[in-house]
Every structure is written in structure tokens, then in C-alpha cells.
Amino acid sequence: MKKIISFVVGALMLSTAAWADSYVVDNKGDFGIAWNAIGKTVGQKDTIIVTASMGGINVNTKDTGPQKGVIYIIGQNDEDGKVPRLDLQIGIDTCTENAFSLIFENLTLSRRSTGTGEIVSSRSTPTYIDTLAFRNCEVLEFGRWPYRSTCDGGNINYFEVSGCTFHDADGEQEMFRFSQSIVEAVMVNNTFYNLPNMKALFALTRVPDEAAKENLIFTFENNDVFVANAAKGALIQVGSCAGMASEYYINNNLFLYPDWVNDMNLPLPEEKQTMIFSGAYGSVFAQNNVIENCRPWTDGMIIDEEGEGAWLNYDESTGEVADITGNMTMAEAQLDWSDFAARESGDFSIWNGHNLYTAGIETAYIKGKFIGAERWYTDTQKIKASFSYEIEGSQSAKVNIDPMKDQYFIGDEITLTADCNGLNTFNGWSDGNTDLEHKIVLEGDLAITARFTEIDYLAAWNLDQLTKNNEEFASPLVANYTNKAGDYTLAYAGFDGSDSSFVSTRNNKFSSRVLDLRNCVAIRESSDLLDETKTPGYVYIKFPTKGCSDMKFHAVVGNDGYCSDKINLEYSLDGLNWTPLASAAIKEAADSDNPDLMGQGLWFPLEADLPATLEEKDAVWVRVIADTEAGRTMTPPQSTGDVEINTYFLYVGEIRVSATTDGSAIEEVKADEQISKDEPIYDIMGRRVFNVEPNRIYIQKGKKFIQK
After folding, report:
1. Residue 544, preceding peptide bond in cis (omega within 30° of 0)
2. Do 249 and 396 lie in a common domain?
3. In total, how many domains does the chain have?
């Protein structure tokens, strides 16, 4: 951590300003030290400059934390231009007399941990803040609130949110929730999207008494609001918590129910439409907003039983609200969702030659007449281009697209990566390129084909559904891919031979070494089960062999902890009595460059031809199990001391069975029957298909059909 001390000397050396401290931090420990060192003097400006992402930070103003002065927390981009991220929770319960300010700039902010929670909070005592501001920040994955106060009392002189983006949070509360009064609030040039459960963007929830009500000056201008809050409350809620002379300026905003959560893009019934503003007093000035699927302005007015309250500029005789003019629907603004570059991906770029750029009004905060956040306007008109791909020759291969967008434009660069998924060889792209990774700059519409050849397999478990480490899948686990109809399953059995209700996995890695990353099933058990008197748990597959010959089994195995030196492959016809078939030796000094690692982090093939006695059976069992009679390896080996490792791990990946299949079980073509959608479908080569085409022959339940 670097500390920078600076001071300002007034003109002619007549006075000296308060010292100001600046700390440069790149880890959460130093962040905590800096936080506790600053904020001791009224009027002093202190800065924490954050140079690296860090999470799990929990600090507050109690004890040694800041309680006075102006605190800036500013992110410094790295050499690649990346903004640092803070997973943060700050408590400011001990701030009094409006002597404390907290300002965030140029940061990615999220809550400290998963679940509910807030980034900044005041819970236990009335809190008095001079300035609370979020400037040019990306705020995401917050549990409920970026800011919340729950203790009645206190106030904020100035609250600001400007140039920020809020997205991908599923909290079910108000975003900014205040139980203290506010003198001035400014929210300008922000974007809000993918907040499906948000009840409000700004909410004054209560004040302790009438005397505490401030006449709020509230500005909400040039914001993009793509929030589907399903009428859970008004986007801006003040109720009766602000004074009679409050003023609300709501101009140049996009209030649009996002079309990506409403596939039909149909008008919502009124009861599901959100209100924009809800309040009892004050004047509302709302001009030149684009509004779609929101309730009329008057639905937000609050009137008591005596008919008192409501906005001061409401004309009861006409039922209209003055100073609410120039608002438009999307059609009136000549705006279509497709005008945004890639809205579902969070790219709301729009050409500044669009009508929207001049459809607003000039305000005190925004110089220009554009509607929505300024950051999204671009000088270049983007020409749309369609992009699609097909996979030829394989049901199991994949193509990864980066970036994946709902709309592409000429000039966009796309990286295509052919994924053989452990079951294919790659033959190249239809444009002649043969690289697995293919970078393309779109020059117009593009349709491209990735060509593969699948290896021979009857059934394969490559676990390509894995999304994270240590997932548990319900047992039995069906094969990911099959080339012949049948019941192909994988399961885990414990040391007593009974099936578990789940199968544990690892995603792409095991051990502390990363040499060769692969999806795998994981067995974790007590190391004493490797004693000769006991049977360790094992992974097995079960499958039919009717119409199959020349069957082969393939897998890769690896182990960790206090594990067996040998892994066995065995088969059974009843799932109870097992016959040895093959084994894989976990070799010491398997890595010649690291002779002490004893095979840690390495994969070893476990392969065998299955005997002909297993053919033409309704069910065959094949298992992978540690050899209890072999020696045991400790990974990593302990060079000194008496170290006990009481757990062994066995990992099994790339599990597949191949076979030659005959057609004796396939009945003649039935042209007068229809393929069912409820059963697996195969082509005449025995490969499973998911999209059928007219006038082609397919196999289903052992019968050939011509798809009508």
C-alpha cells in the first residue's frame, strides 16, 4: 500500500487547508487499513485509489473508521483498461451532523457476498450524510440494495447517481431505499436493465415526523430504464415522505418494458404495468420521455380519504397534470428495439443520426436534446448483418461464439471456436479455414458450417452439461450421446454396493496441478476403504448389448489424496458379481520433469475390449474401482514427518462404449406412420438427431420411418 500525503497552501501563504491523505491499495487488507486511517476531520478530502479487483470487504464507520470529511473511493484502470471490482459492504451508522461524505467513482461494485445485502447501509442509528454519490460505476449482483437506511431519522443533503450502469441483480427490494429525508437527489445518464424483481429505483420509505420532511429537489433525466418490475411499485417512490414544495424533474428518459422478457412483445395489461412516479405532494415536471407499457402519470398520485394531497399541479376539473408534456410511445419516437446494437447482451449503442438524438429537451444537467444515456450514442451508423452457423457430421460437436449477441453489424469481429467435445475430429470450416479458432470480421450476412467426423461410439458420458465445480447430478445419469436406442446410464455405488441418489462431479480439473483439464466424475471416500478387507465406492455404467458386437470400453482415470496405485476395470451380468478385465497403473514419476509428483494431476487411459460373452444381453454392467490389493500413493508425497491423509479421490472421465451394430433389430420402413416426439430419433447411420426433415428415413424404437 502506498500513502500519499498532500496539502494545499492558500494565496500568499495566509492559510493552510486541512491535510488530505491518499492511499493506493491493491488488496482488501490494505483497503481496510486505509479505511480506518482516513475520515477524521470535517472538510478534509481523503482518497482510496483502488488498482486491483478485490472481494469480501466488510468495513464500517464504527470504532476507527471514517466519520467525518469527504471520502473518495476511486478505481484506477489497469493497462488493459479494465475497471477494478469491489465486492463491498460498508456500514455508516455513526455519521452525525452531515459531516461525512462518501463518493464512488470508476468502479465495478457488488455486495460483499452472495445472498441478500447491500453495498452501503445505515441500520442502527439515524445517519446524517452531506454527500452520497455513485459516479461512472458499474453496479451488479447486489442482493437487494446498493444503499439502504432502515433507522428512522437523519438526512442526506445531496444524493447523486450519474453515468452508472445497474444490471443483473435479482433483489426484491428498492434499489436505493431511504428512511431519512433528502434535500436534493440527482440521477442522470444511467442505465438500468436485467433487474427482474426490483420494486423501485429510488424510494423514500418513511420519515419520523412531519417536522423532518424536507422539500426534495429531485432530478431524474436521460436515463435508460429497461426494468420489468411487474407493477411491484413505482420506479420512483416518495409517497408522503417529502415536503409540500418538493419539485420533481423527470425528463428525456427511456421507460421501456424490455422486450427480451416478453417474447411476443405484446402490450401488458394495465395491472401489470409499472408506475413511473408515486407521491402525495409537490410539482412534477415530466417532459419528452419515451414510455412503453407504463401506467398513466395520474396512477401515481396519492390522495387521502378527505381528498387531500396529490401533486400540486394536478387540475381536478380536467383530470390532467400540468407540466407533463411531449412524452412519446416508441412508435411516436420512431424507435424500435432493433435500433439498439445488442440489447439482450447489454449493448444499447444507437446511432446519433436516429430521431431519438434530437427528440428531447435541454436541461440544467444535460447539454443536448438527446433522450436516454449519452454514453450509448455513436457517430457511426451500424449496418445490420445476419450470422448463423451449422454443424455437419456430428451430433456431439459444438461451436462457441464470442461475442454472442442477438444482433451483429458489418465490421463486428466474431471468434468461432470448434469444440470437438472429446468425441470428434475437426475437418475445417466451409470457408476453407482449418483452424479450431477462427476469427472473422463480418463484411455482410454470413452463414458458415463447421465440419466434424464423430469417433465410433455406442454411448458416451462426457459430462458436457457441467457448468461449475463439484456439481451433483441425480443418479442414474443418462448418457450424453447415444447412437443406438436403449437405456444407457451411469451411477455411483458406495462401499456397501448400494447406489447413491447422486453422482458427484468435477468440472475440468482435479488436484492442485493443472496439466490437462477434463470433465470427470469424482469419488471421494475415506482412505481406509482401500484396505483389503473393504470395498471402496465405484462408478459403473449399465447398458444393453442387443445387436452389438466388437464392443470396446474407454475412459481416463486420475487420483488424488491417499489413493490406490492401480485402478481396475471390471464387468458383470447382474451388477453383483464382478470379473476383472483390465487395469491402469498410476505410475510413480509419471512426469519425468517432476519425478516426485507420483502421477498427481495426470490422466491415465483405462481401455479394454469387452468379451463376446457380453453380447446380446438386456443389460451389462462395467465398473471403475480402486484396487485394494495394490499399493497406495500419497499425492503430493510427504518428504518428512508423519503425515496422515484420510481421504482418497478417484476421477473418471471420457467414459464411452463403442460397438459394431447390425440392422437385424430394425424393422422395415413404415411410410404410413408418424415419428413420435417423445422417443429418441436416429438417422440411418445410427446417430441420434434432434431435427427431422421431410421425406428422409429415420429410426425410432427399432423401426424405420419416412418422415412425412
Report:
1. no
2. no
3. 4
Residue range 653-673, pLDDT digits in tens = 999 999 988 643 344 445 555
Report yes or no: 458 and 661 within 8 Å, Cβ to Cβ.
yes
Could you say which of 336, 361, 382 is where a domain stops? Answer: 382
Residues 123 and 130 sit within 8 Å (Cβ to Cβ): no
Distance CA 275, CA 296 (A): 7
Residue with cell 458458415: 448
Is 196 among the domain residues? Answer: no
Q: How far apart are CA 76 and CA 269, in angstroms?
A: 46
Helix and strand counts by DSSP (H, E) for the chain: 1, 59
* pLDDT < 70 regions, the chain: 1-19, 113-116, 208, 211, 230-231, 262-266, 507-515, 532-533, 587-601, 633-645, 662-678, 683-691, 695-696, 701-704, 706-708
Please tell me the distance from the alpha carbon of residue 378 to that of residue 384, in angstroms, as a whole number.
Answer: 15
For 323-355, give the secondary structure using H, E and C: CEECCECCCCCCCCHHHCCEHHHCECCEECCCH
Q: What is the pLDDT of residues 327-372, one digit of tens each?
A: 999 999 999 998 998 888 889 999 999 999 999 999 999 889 999 9
So what's the pLDDT on residue 264?
Answer: 54
In whole angstroms, what is the distance from residue 494 CA to residue 197 CA? 43
Nearest to 320 by CA among 349, 297, 348, 288: 297
Please state, as a whole number, how many other Cβ atoms lie within 10 Å of the Cβ of residue 182. Answer: 25
8 A C-beta contact, residue 598 and residue 588: yes
355 lies in the same domain as 408: no
Q: Quote the pTM value.
A: 0.65
Containing structural domain, residue 432:
387-454
